[in-house]
Amino acid sequence: MAEKRLMYGNHAVVEGVIYAGCRFFAGYPITPQNEIPEYMSIRMNEEGGVFLQTESEIAAINMLFGAAAAGKRAMTSSSSPGISLMQEGISYIAGADMPVLVVNVVRGGPGLGNIAPAQSDYYQATRGGGHGDYFTITLAPHSGQELFEFPRLGFELAEKYRNPALILADGLLGQMMEPVEFTYEPIDPTSLPEKEWALSGCKGRERRVVRSYDLRPGKLEDLNRRRFEKYENIKKNEQRFRASRCDDADLVVVAYGTCARVSDAAVRMARDRGLKVGLLRPISLWPFPWDVLGDMSKRVEHFLVVEMSCGQMIDDVKLATECRSKVQFHGRPGGGVPTPPEIYEKILGVLGGTR
Amino acid sequence: MKKIFGRPAGLTEIIQRYCPGCGHGIVHRLIAELLVELDIRERTVGIAPVGCSVFADEYFNCDMIQPPHGRGPAVATGIKRSRPDCVLFSYQGDGDLAAIGTAETVHAAARNEKITVIFINNAIYGMTGGQLAPTTLPGMRSTTSVKGRDVVKQGYPIKVCELLSGVDGAYYLERCAVNTPKNIIKTKKALKTAFKNQMDDKGFSLVEILSMCPTGWGVTPVQSKQWIDDVMSKYYPLGVYRDRAKEEK
After folding, report:
1. Smallest Cβ distance to A202: which of B42, B48, B57?
2. Which residues of B touch A (CB under 8 A)?
3. Where a domain ends, among A236, A263, A296?
4. Distance from CA of A223 to the nearest CA of B (A)
5. How near does any CA of chain A get to the CA of B206, in Å?
6. Nearest CB to B66 within list A50, A207, A212
7. A139 and A97 housed in the same domain
8. Would you call B63 and A71 a contact, using CB atoms and an 8 Å cutoff?
9. Chain B partners within 8 Å of A212 (Cβ)
10. Which of A31, A187, A324, B77 keeps 20 to 30 A from B245, CA to CA?
């Protein structure tokens, strides 16, 4: 049986990164994710990896750019304001088609906001975030278990498509202790294949150049179109979600991360009272699970989107359902976390007319 | 006929697009010669800056990467820590190194990263059309200080070697110039020391090079060389500012 440990979500991320064979971390402390660099400094030291506490998030993301260009698995973690600082680097990394992993333990914003859990960085995570035409593969864990497992998935997707990958968690997931099962053997970094594009010195081969610019007329347009062909493949192949109790549902709650955990309890309350309510949990936020929601909208009358924000993912739900269903919203911005009873009340309110 | 002078193998065949009288081409050549002389070309990764020498990634015949403006030392850190056997050089202009990338420069020095930084100080923003640089001299004209740098409103220039002299982590700091044959020879010697320090795993080495920008300065190439002797090197004195190898002896 796999080893099971009770651990903080932030510590689970660290083990997930180590188990994924990553030996490069650079980052700058920020609440509520400080346990990641703290524990990472110990684990990287034990594993002979690189741990760099940087002068800024800007430096951290650029160190990742270098490490990824050198062909190594590299990751950073931060929370909302720090992720904003990294957007310049993420844009360059996406423009140079380099794989890196960025973990955002989201807190309340905008500005300094607060240090409570939030989901208000959804737009930033799923719309590129920095300047230019690009997207980042975005995964939304809802448990310590997924915080352990998603770093490996994130690296695999990032490398498969040569694109930055994000894990979008929140302060609650990071700070909560849960049992985590170490479901797979750690990957030996030396077993990972050499990248055919990595910078390592040009001995015995043509020199390689990593860059995000092309000033020749028309060339950048071509490059961006090719990158969007890649994005079409990602959209086709990598939509991830978990649907529960949706088959006969009159109302489907759509929620990710912490909100999915809370909504699950509300859905069970509704089912206990005979209401046909289901839960759709997007796991990949980009690519968003447009297809399953599109299909569902052909038979489900109501969707209730629950977010810890004033409503950001709701846009994607509306786009996916194409006005076929009624889309309602319940949100708690600025560090508020919804409770099962308040979501249940909202469900009752929506279904009131149809009961 | 015997060929006695040619393009070093450290440069690609691509024709460089610098203005007449510009110093970049001289410094490129010195670096390229050293890549061959020190036999490090095949394990070098160069960092191109943002600015006139953004195309350095086409000119140097080695692996190259083009990072965001000012972030060269951070990208170099990521590569060097991942592949310690590689030789890293970060080629940066004054805006790149002493304005937008000041933090990355100071902290790479503080960490004593085992990298070589080549800092081209021509006291002006060339690529964008001659605006004020962090190294523009007091009273010097630029397109954003048309009556000359007013230190009351625009502050004072940053003297990078002097600034980094206060950083314990910095291993080697020297300021040179490429306006005369004698200074060019000195510059090559400094660059060689900066690369050798990295090859010997010693530490952060930065060579600041006073370099001509006749286009940005609005003078002839000949005048620009003279101006470095007469004015610029008076404000930015040439010499070794830190040499821990000597201090340790």
Report:
1. B42
2. 41-45, 48, 54, 57-58, 61-68, 71, 74-83, 85-87, 103-104, 106-107
3. A236
4. 16
5. 19
6. A212
7. yes
8. no
9. 66
10. B77
Give the Cβ contact number of residue A348 at 10 Å: 15
**In this structure, what are the phi and psi dihedrals at residue A289, rounded to the nearest 5 degrees?**
-75, 65
The ipTM (two decimal places) reads 0.97
Note down pLDDT in tens along chain A; length 355 residues: 789 999 999 999 999 999 999 999 999 999 999 999 999 999 999 999 999 999 999 999 999 999 999 999 999 999 999 999 999 999 999 999 999 999 999 999 999 999 999 999 999 999 999 999 999 999 999 999 999 999 999 999 999 999 999 999 999 999 999 999 999 999 999 999 999 999 999 999 999 999 999 999 999 999 999 999 999 999 999 999 999 999 999 999 999 999 999 999 999 999 999 999 999 999 999 999 999 999 999 999 999 999 999 999 999 999 999 999 999 999 999 999 999 999 999 999 999 854 4
All residues of chain A having their beta carbon less than 8 Å from the beta carbon of residue B76 are 66
User: Does residue A221 lie within any of the structural domains?
Assistant: no
Q: Is residue A219 part of a domain?
A: no
Q: Find the angle CA(A189)-CA(A82)-CA(A47) to the nearest 5 degrees.
A: 20
A1-27 confidence digits (pLDDT tens): 789 999 999 999 999 999 999 999 999
Residue A104 phi, psi dihedral angles, 5° rounding: -115, 110
Closest CA in chain A for residue B57: A209
Whether residue A321 sits in one domain with residue A262: yes
- Residues A66 and A154 grouped into a single domain: yes
pLDDT tens digits for range B157-208:
999 999 999 999 999 999 999 999 999 999 999 999 999 999 999 999 999 9
CA gap B14, B12 in Å, rounded: 5
A-chain residues near B75 (CB < 8 A)? 62-63, 65-66, 69
Task: List the domains of chain B with CATH numbers.
Answer: 24-128+159-243 (3.40.50.970)
Show residues of chain B in contact with A210, CB under 8 Å. 64-66
Nearest to A199 among B74, B79, B81 (CB): B79
Which two three-digit tokens encode residue A213?
A: 């610019």
Judge whether A210 lies within some domain.
no
Rounded to whole angstroms, the Cα distance separating B123 from B140 reads: 9
Residue of chain A nearest B50, judged by CA positions: A213
Beta-carbon separation of B78 and A89 below 8 A: no
